[in-house]
Amino acid sequence: MYKQLATFTLTAVSLVFASAAFSHTRLETPSITDGVRVTNNVVIGHGCGAEGSTVRNPVIGTSVVFPDGVDSTITVDGQPYTGNLSDFIDNWVNIPKQNYSRAVFDLQDVKTDSQGNVIGFWAGGNPLPTSMNGYVPFRINAVTFTEGSCASSVEFFISIVDICEITPISGFSESTVGLWTHNSLGTPYDRQGTEDDGPASLTVTRTSTLPASCGAGQVVKVKPSAAQINRDMPIIYNGQQVWPQ
Ligand SMILES: [Cu+2]
Asked: Which of the residues 59, 77, 81, 198 has the least number of beta carbons within 10 Å of its own beta carbon?
């Protein structure tokens, strides 16, 4: 009896955590393998409001930023790495490509760096009913591991802000924005919280055999820089910044 109760309690607790985690804004397919182009979606699971609240404000837009790999922060097996992303991934350029869709939002466009490479995208313009999920489609081009590298997987942290009300930065609150971002970059877009569980993750797992000298291989993680978030998170539409404002 006690054992059954314990099992039930554990199951109930893990279900609560699972559903809470699932309702965050995440990628439909967070785990992919190298060398394959994958159709994916940003899944907006709920509107703005305190985590766990039942009444939420509808999301009217979303802003999505991939680490550009230029000034990103890299760790290898948990340790800071000062070399380049190209030591592990040799084609991290123009990896996301937005798929045109007016299924959820009327307006959308890609975000580009100074060279015109896509580093993110946004969509918005009308409210997503709070009772439904919103799927914002994009494609991830085939990612390839650098020959000779020891990386067995590379996890990219994708920063997303769901917007429920257009405000200046000073108006950011749980009821106006959903911050699916890092908690300690030091940008106005940082998620409030002690755990760094905001961004949506995308893990690329290597399918080819590692060089024999690599042993078990290295686990690589890539976060955007504060400078990139500050530069790339705002939404520019027809040459004008429309959010935040
Ligand atoms: Cu959530």
From this structure: 77
